Amino acid sequence: MFGRLRYTLLTIAFLLIGNTATWADKTFVLVIDPGHGGHDAGAVGSFSKEKEINLQVALAFGSLVEQNCPDVKVIYTRKTDIFIPLDTRADIANNAKADLFISVHTNSLPAGRIAYGSETYTLGMARAGANLEVAKRENSVITYEKDYQSRYQGFDPNKAESYVIFEFMQDKFMRQSVDLARCIQKHYVRANRKDKGVHQAGFLVLRKTSMPAVLTELGFISTPEEESFLNSKEGIKTLSTAIYNGFIDYRKQHGYAGKTLPPPIFSNYSATETTPKEDTSVVQVVPVETNNAPIVAPRQKENAETTAISEKENAKAADNTPAKPTNKETVTARKEPTQPKPRKEEKQVTTAKPNPTAKTPTGPSYTIQFAATSTEVSLKDPIFRGMEDLKCTKRGNLYIYTTGHYNSKAEAEKDTKKLPARYKSYLIVKENDLAASAQSATKAEKQPSTKKAEKAEPAKEQNKLTFRVQFATTPTKLSTTDARFKGLPDVRCYHEGKLYKYTSGNYASQAEARSALKELQKKYPDAFIVKFQGNEKK
C-alpha cells in the first residue's frame, strides 16, 4: 500500500515539475508593427517619409529585444518597404498567438503648425478632437485597399460617427495596454523627449488584436527639428531604446525578467532632442476642465507660436496654431491623465490682486505669466510648490498666474530657467498692461443689472458646485444604464455641441473627485474632472 502511495506521489510531483518547466520555457511572442509601407508613405516631411522612420526605429527596437531577451520571439509585420493592410497586421499577431503588439508610427500636423514630443495610444473612443484626428490620419491607409468598404464593414475613416464602435472596446486587455503605454511614455521622458501623454483613440490596427496592444507616435515629421532628429542615428537609437526599456518595465510588472538599458549617450549630442527656439509644449495647470480645458500661456519669443489644444484630457492635443502673442492671448491646454507630483518643500504665498491705487514705477516692469485657468486656484495649492513671488490676477473670465518682478525683459527671460519643468510654456508681460486689462474686465463684469442678479438667487441646490469625472464621449447618445457602464457610480450624460459626454460621480470637493479619477484612469486613462453648477457645466 505504501509502495503504491509513494508511486502516486512521485508521479504527481513529476507532472507538477513538468508543467512548471513548460510554463517557464514558454516563449514570449512580441509583434512589432512598423506603420505604413510600400505605396503608403504615411506622413511626409521636407526630406523623408514616415514609413522609412517607422521601419528604422522598429527594426532597431526589435534588435535590442533579440539581443537582450533570449526568451522572446520577435515577429515583424514587415521588415522591408512593402504595403500590409491593417487587418492583416492584426492577423499576423493573432495567428502567432502574440503576447504583445506594438505599432510604431510618426506624427504630423498641417503646414504652419509646430509640435514636439512622443505619445502612445491604446484602443478606445477618442476623448479629444486631436486624438480623433490622429486616428483618422492613421486609419486613412485603408483607402489604399481596393475592397476596404466591405472589408471594414462600411467604416469611413473620415467620419466621426464611424468611431463610436471603439467605445469601451478591448476591455479584456485595456488595463495591460494602458500599463504598456505608460511604461513606454516613462522612458521617452527619461530620454528627454517631450511627454505628449497616454491617450485612447479608435485605431483599426489595434481593433482586432487579441492581446495587449499600443500604437506609439515617435515625434512630429512636420516639425523641421523633429524630422532631423527622427532621421538621425542618435534619434533612432534614443527612440528604440526608450521603447525597449518600456517593454522591459512592462514585462517586469507582469512577472518576467529583463535587462534595462541606460539611455544612449552621444559625444557630440548634448540632448536627445534639438532644443527648439520656440517651445510649444503644453502642461496641465489644474485637473479641473472648464470649457474643455485649463488654459496655459505659450512660451514667447520674437515670433513665438501659440498652441491651441482641446481637451489630461483631456482635451489633449498636439495642435499648435501660429499667432503673435499679446497680453490678451491665452491657450487652451490639453488635460494630462496624471496629477503633477508635489515637491518636498512648500513656501507660503498669498494672492495679490491688482491695486488700482498703487503707484506705478517710473519705468516699465515685467513679470512671467506661466498659466491661466477658468476657475481660481489657491496659490497654496501643491501644484505651485517650489515657486516664489506668485500673483493671481482676474482678467475677464480668466485667472492669470504670474511670478517675479523684473526691470527688463532680458532679466525676466533669464529667470524663466527657474520655472518648474511642468511649466514649459510662458509669456513675459508688462505688469501695467496686465493690471490695466484686469481693471477694464472688472468694469465690464459690473455692467449686468441687479434685476438679473436677483433672479439667479433662488434654489441653492441648483447652484451648488460639484465635481464629476468625465470618461467618455460619443457622437450618438447611449443610455446611462447601458451594460458597458456597469460598475461605474452615478453615470450621467450631458450634451455639448454635437457630442454626448458621460460622467461618473457627483462630488462636493475636488479632493473626492481626484480620488475617484485616479481609480477610473486605470481603465480610462483619458478621464478628467469637470466642474458643474447644478446641472450646468462651468
From TrEMBL:
Source species, domain of life: Bacteria
Enzyme class at the top of the EC tree: hydrolase
Region (Disordered): 293-367, 437-461
A Pfam family that the UniProt record links to this protein: Amidase_3
Comp. bias regions, Low complexity: 350-364
Enzyme Commission (EC) number: 3.5.1.28
UniProt keyword Oxidoreductase present: no
Any single Gene Ontology cellular-component annotation: outer membrane-bounded periplasmic space
Catalytic activity: Hydrolyzes the link between N-acetylmuramoyl residues and L-amino acid residues in certain cell-wall glycopeptides
InterPro entries: MurNAc-LAA_cat, N-acetylmuramoyl_amidase_3, SPOR-like_dom, SPOR-like_sf
Annotated CDD domains: MurNAc-LAA (cd02696)
Biased composition (Basic and acidic residues): 299-316, 331-348, 443-461
The MurNAc-LAA domain, residue ranges: 90-248
GO terms under biological process: peptidoglycan catabolic process
Gene3D superfamilies noted in UniProt: Sporulation related repeat, Zn-dependent exopeptidases
Name of the protein in question: N-acetylmuramoyl-L-alanine amidase
